[in-house]
Amino acid sequence: MKSDYHFKFEDLLVYKKAMDFAELVDEITKGFPQRELYALSSQYRRASDSIGLNIAEGYLGSDAQFVKHINHAIYSSNECVSANEKARRRGYVNFEQSEEVRRQVTTIQKMLTSLRGKILLRMKKK
């Protein structure tokens, strides 16, 4: 069901992909051992959630503010790569799951980098 209330940042494809990615990470971390509940799985979920949250938070700010939040989203996506590698090394995810995470993060980072470049270009023209 679609909401009657719409926010402009929800139209960004990178936002949609970030939200989907966070759901993938949430599903993956459900299989982590209980001892990781307040450690790696929590950190991984928070980092994945942070990508979309930063896009939404920075969207209506100034261009400089949005670039700052895009950078935070990129940092969080890098954190997800590291958490994913830890999970793979500890045997919590298999190679195929790990590769899917890497594929999605790569796509999101390319989109964020492109968006940041367009905003920076617009800032130079002002």
Which labels suit this protein?
0% strand, single chain, 126 residues, elongated, 4 helices, mainly alpha
The portion of residues assigned to helices is over 70%
Please state the average pLDDT score: 97
Gyration radius, to the nearest Å?
A: 16 Å
Uncertain spans: none
Structure notes:
The longest helix is centred in the C-terminal third of the chain and has 31 residues, at about 95-125. The mean pLDDT is about 95. The protein has helices at about 15-30, 40-60, 65-90, 95-125. By secondary structure, it is mostly helical. Helix content is about 75%, strand content about 0%. It is built from four helices and no strands.
